[in-house]
Amino acid sequence: MLTLTRSDSSNSDFLYLVQLLDEEVQGRYGEEHATIAPFNKLDNIQHVIVAFMNGEPAGCGAIKKYDEVTAEVKRMYVHPRYRGKGVAKAVLHALDTWAKELNYTFCILETGVKQPEAISLYTSSGYKQIPNYGQYATVKISLCFKKELI
How far apart are CA 70 and CA 106, in angstroms? Predict the structure, then answer.
């Protein structure tokens, strides 16, 4: 059974999953990962979703303020054991819903060119590719997406 919990970046299950995420991203990108690693700090992220499958931490994601009308989706990850079971879609939907509750109009996010699963998730969830924004503007391994929250 899948359950979702709202928390913040101090949540120990979130921190465990983010460690696995960082290891996986490092494995996919090697040295290139260093260009984006500084943009993934966990300090003061107040809006975190942790997904549990039968009580085990299965996935996570977070949102943080980007500007007055836009939330940025961060640290999306699903443990390999739970992939293909709808965890990522549920977490992303919960983040979109929470962003709307917080009166954001848009969500934006960055993912990598070597993450086809993530790209598929975002496009199938209504996110449209946009030019790379902010700190990702010149990062060649990044792809950025945006969704209007209706």
Answer: 5
